Amino acid sequence: MNGRTLSATPTLTERAGALFHRYANPGRFLRLGDRIQPWLTWSAVIITLIGLGWGLFFSPADWQQGDSVRIMYVHVPCAWLSSSGYFALAVCSVLSLVWKHPLADLAAVEIGPVGACVTATCLATGSLWGKPMWGTWWVWDARLTSVLVLFFLYLGHIALIHAFDDQQRGYRAAAILALAGAVDLPIIKFSVQWWNTLHQPASITLTGAPTMSQTMLWPLLISTLGFTLGFTAIVVARLRAGVMESRIRSLLSSPRRAVSGEASA
Amino acid sequence: MKRKTRRLWLVIACVAGLGTAAGLTLSAFSSNIQLFMAPSQVVDHPPAADRTIRLGGMVVAGSVKRERQGETPINLFQVTDGQAAVTVRFEGILPDLFREGQSVVAVGSLEPDKTFVASEVLAKHDETYMPKEVAEALQKSGKWNPKFGPPPDAASWNAMTGKDTAAGKN
Amino acid sequence: MTHLPYILASYGLAGSLAVILSVGAALRLKRDRLKLASLEAARGRAQSGTQGGQRA
Question: Does A205 map to a domain?
Fold first, then answer.
């Protein structure tokens, strides 16, 4: 694989690359995915139902927001997922641009639409929460605008990855867009600190104690875990389908060649 | 340098360059990204009367006067950032979350007589989420008055329920 | 409950999106698995066919 290597000791880049190839080649992923899919799916369903049921029926109403605070148990997990989904997209882009990893390209194709849906839900539920509380559906403050930009980045990524006849060029262009767009992630995170916004600052931070009642924090964390598992389950399912489709494509384009399981690895 | 290593450095350099560029742009336009102006800014540098601005701050306790002119309610209140206060006049229905001590954003313009005539008032809620019983208990025990500032740390009332504090437990 | 329409709309939106995405993924998986199986079966037959011909 490293035909050009002159020195005997492999560099860090090569070792990291070998690791990715070993643990994330499409055939291996397909076997692994088959096994973990039911666990992912059912734990996601059960944990999400527990979190949302708790939030909807058993957690207390907020002292000033009343019951509308229950929108938080949908809105906040979606908001976190929209950012971490985009982070995953950026990681796939690095793997694609530097190591030309085929599974990373397929993953980027599948993460994009799911991330866009989650971001759209975040924006829509935020709007539904803003109308009764703030008194407006939308305001052009730094937080809301930067999340809208994230949504457009997702849409741009989806459009770009399918825009070229040569699929490899599409992967590359989309990976560059995803990496460039990653500057939006810190802007989203810190927008409520750097500028004054209508959106309130974060209640849950890594550094400080949460400014939220524990009776609300628990259902929020549980539904976040459930949403994250659900996101992963859907992406894994789509990625398994994507790997199979790439295999189908290679079988159809060269039906006579004995294509091994890891056609594109 | 191997090709993969070179590509890795190229990607890192591009991301770093782009990040710096974005950071510089944002800090250059920082004042335009602010959603609202604070009352002290408005007092120090009064904007032209025809310019629509957003004024943000806390509603001063005891400053809210509600009148009625025919069908439309007229609200007068003061907004402060702790240094200066601006009187706001708003015709219409205030949002549910509006109260004394709440942060609000008023959209409108400054009249020559230094009152701010708002066409829209938005309520801004803070990052504290607290059950109703706890809020009532905190107020009853005199530990917090929502008219005068943000609630105490969640850690201090997390173990609290309505019954606990009603009994005067500390 | 106060603000019930807003709450129901939020939960409904998130729920229906989850259902649409998961059903879509499940259908796609099923379709691809069938197609791949039929293609591989066809290839297997073709290969055994040529090998048999050579042997004969």
Answer: no
Interchain proximity A196–B36, CB inside 8 Å: yes
- Specify the long-range contacts of residues B63-71, CB closer than 8 Å, at least 24 apart: B63/B87, B63/B100, B64/B100
Strand B116-124 to B85-91 pairing:
parallel
Name the residue among B18, B22, B9 with its Cα closest to residue A94. Answer: B9
Q: Strand B103-110 vs strand B116-124: parallel, antiparallel, or unpaired?
A: antiparallel
pLDDT at C55: 45
- Interface ipTM > 0.90: no
Contact list in C for residue A252 (CB cut-off 8 A) is 39
- pLDDT band of residue A263 (cuts 50, 70, 90) is very low
Q: Cα–Cα distance between A70 and A60 in angstroms, integer?
A: 9
Q: What is the pTM of this model?
A: 0.86
Q: Does residue A87 or residue B4 have the better pLDDT?
A: A87
> Is residue A196 pLDDT above 90, yes or no?
no
Counted domains in chain C = 1
> Number of folded domains in chain A?
1
CATH of the domain at A162: 1.20.120
Is B155 one of the annotated binding-site residues?
no
Within 8 A of B124 by CB-CB distance, chain A residues are 134, 198, 200
Quick one: A28 exposed, middle or buried, by C-beta within 10 A (0-12, 13-18, 19+)? Answer: middle
- Residue C42: domain span: 28-56
In whole angstroms, give the CA distance from residue A165 to residue A169.
8
Residue B129 in marked binding region: yes
Q: Report the distance separating Cα C34 and Cα C41, nearest Å.
A: 11
* Chains adjacent to A (≥3 CB pairs closer than 8 angstroms): B, C
Nearest-Cα residue of chain A relative to residue C16? A121
Which structural domain range is residue A226 located in? 37-57+67-200+213-249
Question: Which pLDDT value is given to residue B73?
Answer: 86
